[in-house]
Amino acid sequence: MWETNNWQEIDGSELPQWNRHLLRTSATFLQFPYWNEIYRSLHVKPIYVVWGEAQSPLAYVCILTVQAGLRIGLVQRGPVELVPGALTDETVSSLCEWAKSHHYGFLRFR
To answer: What pTM does this model have?
Structure first.
C-alpha cells in the first residue's frame, strides 16, 4: 500500500495499463512506458513512479536512469498531472527527495 504524498515505483506488471491510462491525460508520448522501454537496450533504465494513494494516484513520472556510481535521471516533459492541481511545489520537492533517497546524484527536468 502506498502512502499519501509519497512517490512509489510502479510494478512492471502494471505498465501496460499505465499506457492506456496516460492516453486519457495530457501526457506527452515521452512519458509513456511503451515509448521508454526501448531505452533498456541502450543501458538506460526507465523508472516509473506515481505520487499519492494506490487507488487514486495524483501524479506520474518516468525517469530515464543511468547508473554511474550514483544514479543520473532525466525527466522528459513531466511529471504528468493525473488530477488537476496535483502538481505543486510540494509534489515536485517530494519527487526530488524520493530521488535523493534512491541514490540519484542528479535529476534533470527537460
So the answer is: 0.91
Q: Quick count: other Cβ atoms within 10 Å of Cβ 28?
A: 13
Strands 104-109, 70-75: pairing is parallel
Largest CA distance in the chain: 37
How far is residue 95's CA from residue 30's CA, in Å, rounded to a whole number?
Answer: 18
Contact 71, 104 (CB under 8 A): yes
**Dihedral sign, Cα of residue 98, residue 105, residue 65, residue 19:** positive
> What are the residue ranges of helices labelled H in the chain?
15-22, 33-36, 89-101
CB neighbour list of residue 56: distance below 8 Å, 6 or more residues apart: 83
More confident residue, 29 or 4: 29
Q: Which three cell numbers stand for residue 110?
A: 527537460
